[in-house]
User: What shape does this take?
Amino acid sequence: MKALFAFLSDSEIERIHEATLLVLGKTGIKVESEMVRQMLAHHGAGIAGNIVRLPREMIGEAIGKIRKEFTLAARDPACNLVVPSAKTLNTTSGYAPFVHDLETDVKRSSTGGDLRDFALLADYLEAVEFFWPIAMPTDGPPPLEELSALDISLRGIRKHVQCSCSEGKTAKWQVRLAAAVAGGEKELRLNPIFSAVASPVSPLTFEKETVEAMVILAQAGVPVVPMNMALGGTTAPATLAGNLVMANAEELATLVILKCADPEAPMIYASDSGPADMRTGAVNYHAPEYPLTGAALAQMARYYGLPSMVAHGSSEELPADLTAFERNVLRVLISQATGTDLSSWMGSRDNSISGSMVSLVMDAEVYAHASAYQRHFSADAATLAVEVIDEIGPGGHFLSHKHTVQNFRKELWTKRLQDSFILDAGADSYTDRAREKAKEILASHSVPSLDENVLKEMERLMSEARRDILSQ
Amino acid sequence: MLYAEIKKAILDGDEEKTVALVKKALAEAKEPLEILDQGCIPGIEKAGALFEAEEFFLPELITAGEATKAAMDLLLPELKKTEGSWKSAGKFVIGTVEGDMHDIGKSIVASMLSAAGFEVTDLGIDVSTDRFIEEVKAAKPDFVGLSALLTSTMPKQKDVVDALKEAGLRDQVKVLVGGAPVSSDWAKKIGADGYAEDAIAAVRVAKESLP
Assistant: This one.
């Protein structure tokens, strides 16, 4: 994708790449799985305890095997997505343990029922191109949460599901469950109807269960999304450049692990890295370094030819007025201007710790405004319009020229006030309008049920998985 | 059927097709007044209504106006032959005042007025006060329309009103003013007869101030 906003020069990209190779070769990564360490050693890595050093050639080989384009398939093939994309594809924020209740806006623990409602809402909203289970089913046993989240999502939405996966056993059952819906493991490999966020922990650490899950997913052909979170000042150097090296090193290390597991493994270059808040130590999504980091990492991803998911313009707050709404539009616009292929941000509250249906509807509206900046652009004879300019000549006007009539609706902003409930809220508050809209959608929209035999097979797999996972 | 096609061609802003259809209607010995009333007027009125409803944009309004004007150019000589059955909505002289080079807004108004059945003389841009007076003397229009887009050229609208008074012509012609910085308050202040916010309003104001 062509980015509207780039940050690094070509030589800076090269320097970050070189620094990354130095870190991975000298410092190495911590891999807490004996199985994965052995696999990496077999492919030429240096092992010292649980530290794995990746030689330059090994990294080069993994880069050479990058899948530059692949499909994020969906239960309904009409919702299939291909990455890289011509414009940023957006999804909900995700895996939150809380929701802001639709009726009361009070924050409470999230349930499977909430997730079902979110899936229904996200199925309806066009701006949501694929689905992160935005709220976890915390009313069930914790070890089953990630699997249940996939189960509920596959039933509840026709779009591609990108779930979280942090355990080897979860990965195994997620693959089986999705294969049952896709029509077999071979079909799942061809058309992965889910991808999985399985992430290293900054700095440079691959936790045992997560890294084993990565391997299982890679071998099943499920795209892995290693969304690291290197925070400048806490888990990475405070310098922007140092933070980029850290984030990039973790992405390349994941690439090497996946390619050792399966040379065909698809990966998304994913990051939610940014600056730490130097008062609290938490991520500072509102700092200018956050979109700058996203822009730079999108460039690194394009440098390697990996589809990216590196900038997430979360608004995090309900706009109290039109000015706040426009601020949100700007944040999303800047994040998408990085040229990130995928972005996760919609419906998020309180630094992604909570999901809100009101926010989700509002964010779909934010996107409707921000997306106008991401556009099809061509510079050919018809659009450069030299002949038209010549025909009108100096001092004339283009208003009634055929070329104007044919092009203005697709080239110029013609949105009307009443097309947007935000701009045309009248006496009501935007929040009330968004809440009403969410309720209307939940009451009127429906998602076709999966085939009965598939549902039976899913039930069977879920009860088997329950025994397997809860027995330990 | 033919009239519905003319209406559609005008709505599509298709000047060529409008002209072809009007020629065909005349060749079929249809009454010019009927062609106007049942084909052209419904077309341009619909375009105006769609513009006011914010469904049409300027290019669509103007091209519909231009198509109607092309039809009028064919129909007018025929209409004038049949005395009594038709009379123009009025004579309208229009121009952008001296020192102001802005053309588009004034041209849109001129095109809409033509489409609405006015006989329009467009004097163009940077029109001197004297030139307006000469034209009013010579053509004896019902209206003179003065456009100004700049606060620095607005006073020229007042100059024209004053010059009309001095020449003893003020009672013979209605003065309508327009342009981005112009308001109905300004119109009152300088002694003009009316103000219109856009081209659709200009047609309405002109028609309303007819005796």
Summary: Chain B has nine helices and five strands.
